[in-house]
């Protein structure tokens, strides 16, 4: 992976983690935590969208995919914390 692509992936992950934290109301974990949630959420979102045959292209599509995955991940984390 080129350094520019890696940087863009991390920036999308950071934005997705932050947005997911706002959507889930208090589900954020700080700058580094949000980046981790966003990056893992991007992978999870890509897998989920692929599972359902949904393909979004471009920067905006990548952000939407990452945010959806991060929201799902935060929801799962909250479920596990409750148990």
Automatic annotation (TrEMBL):
<feature type="transmembrane region" description="Helical">
    <location>
        <begin position="31"/>
        <end position="49"/>
    </location>
</feature>
<feature type="transmembrane region" description="Helical">
    <location>
        <begin position="6"/>
        <end position="24"/>
    </location>
</feature>
<keyword id="KW-1003">Cell membrane</keyword>
<dbReference type="InterPro" id="IPR007341">
    <property type="entry name" value="Transgly_assoc"/>
</dbReference>
<keyword id="KW-1133">Transmembrane helix</keyword>
<keyword id="KW-0812">Transmembrane</keyword>
<protein>
    <submittedName>
        <fullName>Membrane protein</fullName>
    </submittedName>
</protein>
<keyword id="KW-0472">Membrane</keyword>
<comment type="similarity">
    <text>Belongs to the UPF0410 family.</text>
</comment>
<dbReference type="Pfam" id="PF04226">
    <property type="entry name" value="Transgly_assoc"/>
</dbReference>
<feature type="transmembrane region" description="Helical">
    <location>
        <begin position="55"/>
        <end position="77"/>
    </location>
</feature>
